[in-house]
Amino acid sequence: MEARHLRYALALAEHGHFGRAARALGIAQPPLSKQIADLERETGARLFDRTRQGVFPTPAGEAFLARARRALDEMAAATVDAGRAARGETGRLRLGFVASALLDPLPDVLGRFGRERPGVRLELHEMASRRSTAALVAGELDVTVTLGPPRGAGAERLVSVPVGHDHLIAVVGSAHPYAGQASIGVDQLRRQQLIVAAGEDEPAVVIGLRTLLGEDVAALDGATVARDVHTIMGLAACGIGVGLGPSRMRSVPRPGVRFCEVTPRTALPDLVLSFADRDRSPALGAFLDTVRRNCPDVGAALDLRLGPAC
């Protein structure tokens, strides 16, 4: 039994006449009569009564036609769904990210992707870089944003491009003596209670701070440890000390704090977007297209690795 048999039976029920049904289908009447007879033999039931007044479905025919309509509707829906999935309009995207990526660039990228691809189910996981890299290599994630390039077993099989460059800045409460300064020097930092973030991703930041402060790291050793940049800014607003974090902190408006550059300028690890080189899923492709359009520099780097987007 094929889809055309279902269409033939539905057309015959609609028109109630072999000749009219055949014309509507664009075929001759004898082939239609034969196909209906073959269908009745296959089902083992008489589906239509042939009378002088017309052709009418039998009770068995009515039951068959109800299923036939649903089957054809499902086939049409399957075609539509397949096309949407192939265009990356449906499916699932699993993203692992470090918290600081929510300052920039993820808000704009995720917002645009959600508006343009509402049928794609986003599964978002805040994770330390090492854990998200391992999950990506294991196939448990589709894409990650990590602090610094991915490292560890399998990292060489990943496509990775920077999505954010950053440097160290300071944040102080509006009543702090440094609040009116455009920049803070190393000697000034050494004399302050410092506030820094903890966590698996912070060693690289701490290494940068130790390099900046040189051998005199007493201020760093006695620093107040915060969970993330939001806590750093909150503690600075309370007058606890001088918070140190990435310059993307500026993108989070918060009353009661002031930002200052740190001199000399100290680069922090890049935010890096990574995905499996073998992954060509439409949902991932759609996400990368959004990244390309939202972050032109990233798009150019992706084009170098993968070729221009179609």
UniProtKB/TrEMBL annotation:
GO terms for cellular component: protein-DNA complex. Residues 1-58 form the HTH lysR-type domain. Keywords: DNA-binding, Transcription, Transcription regulation. It holds the Pfam family HTH_1. CDD domains: PBP2_LTTR_aromatics_like. The keyword Secreted does not apply. InterPro entries: LysR_HTH_N, LysR_subst-bd, WH-like_DNA-bd_sf, WH_DNA-bd_sf. One of its GO terms (molecular function) is DNA binding. Belongs to the LysR transcriptional regulatory family. This is LysR family transcriptional regulator. It comes from Streptomyces apricus.
